[in-house]
From TrEMBL:
InterPro entries: Rossmann-like_a/b/a_fold (IPR014729), Universal_stress_UspA (IPR006015), UspA (IPR006016). SUPFAM superfamilies: Adenine nucleotide alpha hydrolases-like. It holds the Pfam family Usp. It comes from Wollemia nobilis. Transmembrane segments: none annotated. This is TSA: Wollemia nobilis Ref_Wollemi_Transcript_9828_949 transcribed RNA sequence.
Length: 181
């Protein structure tokens, strides 16, 4: 082995140990097919197939869960039993969503972490992406028409303006009939 190759190997090992080359990709997932397509897109387009044991990237599946029990004032108060059942249902739903996204990652040999935040999705996703140190935030889009977007701001629009990292919004037109165009 020549000295240049040894030096390159040594530098590469040092960079891997320090984590400087580690790309951090965060994919926001929910129950929609669009978010699962975004996860699939991220697995197939952002990540090169790696043959080595250590991935040069960190891949995190992020799910924003709505607050479980919110008091609506004296006219609307839920018992602790109802709150417990809602919490149980929400946890099951979150587990199902993350399991589906993890299966997509596993199918493409991508090791993924999961992260769950509780609160308004548009705010919590941006906050979590920043806390996780995301290089990219990937999310799906339902591609509502102009009229609906005038009345109601989309999650992708909000995150693309407020996230502290580049946001990739995977449009549903990318996939037609289950196949990529």
């Amino acid at each position: 082995m020549n000295t240049q190759t040894q030096e390159e190997s040594s530098i590469k090992m040092q960079e891997e140990e320090s984590g400087r080359n580690e790309m951090n990709i965060v994919v926001a997932v929910n129950e929609s097919q669009e978010s699962m397509r975004a996860c699939l897109w991220a697995c197939t387009h952002l990540l090169a197939t790696q043959t080595n044991v250590r991935q040069p990237y960190k891949f995190t599946l992020l799910h924003a869960q709505a607050p479980i029990c919110v008091a609506g004032g004296p006219a609307y108060i839920m018992s602790s039993d109802v709150c417990y059942l809602l919490e149980l249902d929400t946890k099951r739903s979150t587990q199902k969503i993350l399991k589906q996204a993890l299966n997509i990652c596993k199918h493409h040999n991508v090791k993924a972490n999961t992260h769950v935040v509780i609160g308004l999705p548009k705010e919590r996703i941006c906050e979590a992406a920043q806390k996780l140190g995301a290089n990219f935030l990937v999310m799906g889009s339902r591609d509502h028409g102009v009229l609906i977007r005038l009345v109601r701001e989309s999650l992708g629009d909000y995150c693309s303006r407020n996230a502290m990292c580049p946001v990739i919004v995977v449009n549903e037109k990318v996939y037609k009939n289950g196949q990529e165009n």
